[in-house]
């Protein structure tokens, strides 16, 4: 019987079920338009085009995949330098399958402004008060700079002890509520700090903005929230309301009742927060549905670089694992699973590099623990050993404290760690105590099939570790980590070793399923025909170093030196290495050997940059790659950038144009003459990768 990913997934679920384990999984794939332009598709988190894409994608999902969902525009973190909290377009569904909102046509989910007039806000707030049976009047709210102009209405509101409650604020029609200056819904601009201490500081607001009828909900538990949803839907039908935007706070304490899909504003991308899935089949079905809908509205999982290289969207595509609830969470029930994950990931660099972006290392978005401060590896090993030997079950707070100060980047940022526990049991975050282990060294791949395959691979590893704890001491890789494991050949060897471990655990995961992933992450740049075979040139990974701090007004930033590139050169048959010599830019390169391949990495200065290290080194592109055999010479030039001019005429407008740009950067020489050469100068850190900048 031939094995398939679906068969492999069934083996995994059978093993988990046999051991009574419920392991949920989710992720955060990111999308961009086919031709992303503007600040919101480069560095900015928010922008009008991105919100319109999110609305169109939500409409498509409601039509085909998430029937009965209620759409809300909620607000997340407020980051330094950004004027507003980032929005999240959230679709809530009941786990029971019952409809939470049956009239999706009432929502504003189109790429246009709404058609409501300001009078609609007054009409709706009066109807809400009547439906709630409250003896109250809504208070008008206005801008501080134009106090007499009413822009919306405010109703202090809470739901407690199965009843709606309101309160008095010191404002009335003659004295409207003076809103804090801003461009967000008025529910985020209320002067709550100016209210009396005993005042109810939760409020529902209604306003018309850009033609949309916006209803801002206060924080409500599930019982009150579902009643309010029913009231709003009934009123939208009764009053024939259109272009409705429900915003504010999502219900809390609802994990047993609802599941949600979030479309979030993130720098340069539209991020999709997948709902937690109990099985890989559910994850695969959900992700394919979302990807299909995204393609239909003009979003994609990759973007094209100026020089034609097609990469992931760059915004990350993290995988997250946990349990259906904090009381049914395998990481809390079996703390040694967490130590096994930490140890196994540290032993296998392929898990850190092959699924992430082209930029890796200490300054990237998800550095390994041994790429941080020197003491972290020793302290992490001590923490893992201490947790394994603990004579009593640790509390969740204690489990968090074992690793919180160790799983960080070099600056101490817990969110920028390869294995992130920000949502594990983190008191500092409103959504931090949910038992989620987030794996951040993942980026988008060009097809849903590839991304689902990678998710299956990681689920297989965690299932294996739950069954058989991994207790080996952490490995002191030293310089060999970057020297060897930025090369595709060594990463492929490591993947094969992981698959062999998985097979021993009774899970048939075929390493060949990951070949398309490796080919996308480390594409073949081109090949050079040589006697008896060919020289293969592949893209490798590169750690762009962080530069010194720079002051930009009120903030301090650090940029990276992106002036270097790394490639891998290989011979499919190691015996070919004895028949000639490989010379690049006048330097003869030595060979290393992996699984019958002759392999060597090459690091070089590919472009000018400022700031950058080694200003004395000139740009070393094009690379003159030459194979000298006894009676023949083969040569090609590899250009990192445009060989026909200093600039490109904008981004490639199609994948075909991107491929064309890549092809013209490789030029085979006719009738080349043997080049003079000198042996490569190596260093303890560069046995597998020769640094051309030092030659």
TrEMBL record:
What ranges does the record give for the region Disordered, renumbered to this chain? 671-695
Q: Where in this chain does the record put each DUF2126 domain?
A: 8-139, 198-693
Cite the record's Polar residues compositional bias ranges: 678-689
* Listed name of the protein: DUF2126 domain-containing protein
